[in-house]
Automatic annotation (TrEMBL):
Residues 1-23 form the signal peptide. Coiled coil: none annotated. InterPro entries: Secre_tail (IPR026444). The keyword DNA repair does not apply. The keyword Signal applies. Keywords: Signal. This is T9SS type A sorting domain-containing protein. It comes from the Bacteria. Residues 45-112 form the Secretion system C-terminal sorting domain.
Length: 122
């Protein structure tokens, strides 16, 4: 009897060796998620809320020329000086802005990257 069970189990293992018996479709692929890999153009803004300067760091950047546009909450463009601190590190002087919420639009010169982020000026 034990030999029969071992034979059946061996046959099942050989039959299903290319696929998982217990996993549903796509279950194995969920571990190939891009969240485990380094994300390209990961934007970090700090401090948020801010009073004087807003620092922006773009990790794993593929951007050639980065441009920044600040909009107030109703969509008007606000002139904010941008200083390049280091490679993919920028500092925006928001000291002269009125307190409130603002939107920071970040774009590259090719138009492949367009993201908007919200920050609070105290």
């Amino acid at each position: 009897m034990k030999i029969f069970i071992l034979t059946v189990l061996s046959a099942l293992i050989l039959t299903f060796s290319g696929t998982s018996v217990f996993a549903q479709n796509g279950e194995i692929d969920r571990f190939k998620d891009s969240s485990l890999e380094k994300k390209l153009n990961e934007v970090r803004m700090f401090p948020n809320p801010t009073a004087d300067y807003l620092s922006v760091t773009i990790n794993n950047s593929t951007l050639a020329e980065t441009s920044f546009t600040v909009h107030n909450i109703i969509g008007n463009v606000v002139d904010v000086p941008v200083e390049i601190v280091g490679k993919n590190e920028y500092r925006l002087r928001v000291k002269d802005l009125a307190p409130g919420y603002y939107l920071l639009a970040i774009r590259d010169d090719q138009g492949y990257f367009k993201e908007t982020y919200k920050f609070l000026k105290r």
